[in-house]
Structures are given as structure tokens and as C-alpha cells.
Design goal:
This protein has 116 residues and is an alpha/beta fold. The chain has three helices and six strands. A hairpin with a 6-residue loop joins β1 (3-7) and β2. It is globular and about 30 Å long. The two termini are 19 Å apart.
């Protein structure tokens, strides 16, 4: 596959980029994950979960803002990964997003960096 990229407009929405790293697909999320961008995010993550061999890493380093719809989409991504028997790991998560996610679902894996 090489590098794949899916992007939406930059007016308050998320830009998504996908890169394969061995058996892992990394989805880099930039910008805002809010109700206007959730559908594109969900579609990209579902595609990545179907296409990966082992796990999907969501790199949230450049995530500027997330609203309640975005938090719900991140939690739903974990459920979809579990149903597909894939690992889903979130990396470089800002403290306020980490707190909201782990308060809502303690089973969510949040890491400080991508491990091989």
C-alpha cells in the first residue's frame, strides 16, 4: 500500500494520514476531531482496521481539539478494533484527552510512543 492519505477541509476539521509500518497501520490525526470530521475519521479507522495485519496506531500528537463526538469516535474505534481482533493503540495523547478517554473506558490503550 505504501502511504495512503485521506484529508478533509482544514476549516475546523481533522486531516488524516495513513502509513503502513510492517504489520501496523499508523493513522496520524491533525487538527480538530469534532462532529464535522467524525465520519471521515470513522471511515479511515474502519478501513485501517480491516487492512492491517495486527494493529492500528492512532497518533494524536497534532490533535488540536476534540469534542464529545470525537471522544465517542475514539471510544467506538476501540470497540471496532476489539470486534476485528486487532490492537488499537493511541500515542502522544494530550492529558485532557487522555483523562476523558480513560474515564470513559479504562480498557483503552494509551501509549507515549510507538513501539515496534
Amino acid at each position: 500500500m505504501g502511504n495512503a492519505s485521506r484529508a478533509s477541509s482544514s476549516s475546523g476539521t481533522a486531516e488524516l494520514a495513513v502509513e503502513r509500518r510492517g504489520t501496523t497501520l499508523e493513522v496520524v490525526v491533525r487538527g480538530d476531531l469534532r462532529s464535522q470530521s467524525v465520519a471521515d475519521f470513522e471511515h479511515t479507522v474502519a478501513w485501517a482496521l480491516d487492512d492491517c495485519d495486527e494493529r492500528v496506531v492512532l497518533d494524536l500528537h497534532d490533535l488540536a481539539f476534540v469534542d464529545a463526538a470525537g471522544i465517542r469516535a475514539l471510544l467506538d474505534a476501540r470497540s471496532h478494533a476489539s470486534a476485528r481482533r486487532r490492537d488499537l493503540v493511541l500515542v502522544d495523547v494530550k492529558d485532557e484527552v487522555r483523562d476523558a478517554l480513560t474515564d470513559a473506558d479504562s480498557r483503552l490503550v494509551v501509549a507515549s510512543e510507538i513501539s515496534p
